[in-house]
Amino acid sequence: MINDGLTDSKFDQRDGIPDAQKMSRAPTVAIIDIGSNSIKLLVARSSPNNSGIEVLYTHTIETRISSGISQAHPRLSAQAIEAGTRTVTELLRLARAYQPDAVRIVATSAVRDARNGQEFTELIETQTHYRVDILDGPEEARLIARGLATDPELSTLNDYLQIDLGGGSLEVILLQKAQIQQAISLQLGAVRLSEQFLLDREAPIDQNTASAIQTHVRKTLETSIDGSLPSLPVVATGGAIVITRAILAAEDGLTIENRSACMTMQEISQLRQRIGGVPLHDRLAIPALPPARADILPTALLTIEAVLEVANADQLTHSFHNLRYGIAAELLEKR
Question: Mean pLDDT over residues 1-18, rounded?
Answer without folding.
Answer: 50
